[in-house]
Amino acid sequence: MEKKLTVIKVGTSTLTYENGKINYRRIESLCKVIADLQNSGEQIILVSSGAIGVGMGKAGLSVRPTETKKKQALAAIGQCELMFMYDKLFGEYNHSVAQILLTRYAVETEQKRQNVINTLDELLDMNIIPVINENDTVAIDELEGNNFGDNDMLSAIVAGLVGADKLVILTDIDGLYDDNPRSNPNANKIDVVGRISPEIFEMAAGTGSNRGTGGMITKLHAADYATQRGVECHIVNGANPNVLYYVFDGMNVGTKFLARKEN
């Protein structure tokens, strides 16, 4: 049976509490589910935000700083802690992880893109789970709001590079709604989107959380990028990582964006 390849992106709001400290129970659950999916024959690439959020918790900060150099320092603190946790937790389920830190410059030419693909292919062949994050310590573009967008676009780029079957974006909302559900209790969730039109973009409330930088609009751009390259995309609530089982079982959770190939 041919293995299916899925890119799973997890955001800062999923990995941490409102005060910025690590949500250990959720991260443990996430690692257990991904390890189980890997055992079932799936291939998983994890794109993980959270370095700055985890760094905030380690440094005792409750509000995300605005100064770029402080965010760089927090990313350096947090990335170390983040990978330590992933290494420990996946190791408990007999899986190994590898850290890959990327910037936009790592994929700007065909040769550089191929280098990334070669590394990922080899890791997957070795049954290693790649954990990818943007290199916030040296690449300040995302920190200033104009690079991969809280790793949403990075996850889509990775999914396109490796020819993934699915991209699953775990966030703190149940999916795409026709209005902002945080301010409108009558907002309706959209289950399936065939094509991301300008009207769909207008539905996205561009609000992020205190710990992350991305809102629904960055996830829509990521979904648009991925689906145009033949990758099915799902935006689902990551509060309970068991939701990944439902996605892989084909159940109607979150919002599914159908893959399409542009001519």
From TrEMBL:
<feature type="domain" description="Aspartate/glutamate/uridylate kinase">
    <location>
        <begin position="4"/>
        <end position="237"/>
    </location>
</feature>
<feature type="binding site">
    <location>
        <position position="136"/>
    </location>
    <ligand>
        <name>substrate</name>
    </ligand>
</feature>
<dbReference type="Pfam" id="PF00696">
    <property type="entry name" value="AA_kinase"/>
</dbReference>
<feature type="binding site">
    <location>
        <begin position="213"/>
        <end position="219"/>
    </location>
    <ligand>
        <name>ATP</name>
    </ligand>
</feature>
<feature type="binding site">
    <location>
        <begin position="171"/>
        <end position="172"/>
    </location>
    <ligand>
        <name>ATP</name>
    </ligand>
</feature>
<dbReference type="InterPro" id="IPR011529">
    <property type="entry name" value="Glu_5kinase"/>
</dbReference>
<keyword id="KW-0963">Cytoplasm</keyword>
<dbReference type="InterPro" id="IPR041739">
    <property type="entry name" value="G5K_ProB"/>
</dbReference>
<feature type="binding site">
    <location>
        <position position="151"/>
    </location>
    <ligand>
        <name>substrate</name>
    </ligand>
</feature>
<keyword id="KW-0418">Kinase</keyword>
<comment type="similarity">
    <text>Belongs to the glutamate 5-kinase family.</text>
</comment>
<keyword id="KW-0067">ATP-binding</keyword>
<dbReference type="GO" id="GO:0004349">
    <property type="term" value="F:glutamate 5-kinase activity"/>
</dbReference>
<dbReference type="InterPro" id="IPR005715">
    <property type="entry name" value="Glu_5kinase/COase_Synthase"/>
</dbReference>
<comment type="function">
    <text>Catalyzes the transfer of a phosphate group to glutamate to form L-glutamate 5-phosphate.</text>
</comment>
<dbReference type="InterPro" id="IPR036393">
    <property type="entry name" value="AceGlu_kinase-like_sf"/>
</dbReference>
<comment type="pathway">
    <text>Amino-acid biosynthesis; L-proline biosynthesis; L-glutamate 5-semialdehyde from L-glutamate: step 1/2.</text>
</comment>
<keyword id="KW-0808">Transferase</keyword>
<feature type="binding site">
    <location>
        <position position="9"/>
    </location>
    <ligand>
        <name>ATP</name>
    </ligand>
</feature>
<dbReference type="InterPro" id="IPR001057">
    <property type="entry name" value="Glu/AcGlu_kinase"/>
</dbReference>
<keyword id="KW-0547">Nucleotide-binding</keyword>
<dbReference type="InterPro" id="IPR001048">
    <property type="entry name" value="Asp/Glu/Uridylate_kinase"/>
</dbReference>
<dbReference type="InterPro" id="IPR019797">
    <property type="entry name" value="Glutamate_5-kinase_CS"/>
</dbReference>
<feature type="binding site">
    <location>
        <position position="49"/>
    </location>
    <ligand>
        <name>substrate</name>
    </ligand>
</feature>
<keyword id="KW-0028">Amino-acid biosynthesis</keyword>
<protein>
    <recommendedName>
        <fullName>Glutamate 5-kinase</fullName>
        <ecNumber>2.7.2.11</ecNumber>
    </recommendedName>
</protein>
<keyword id="KW-0641">Proline biosynthesis</keyword>
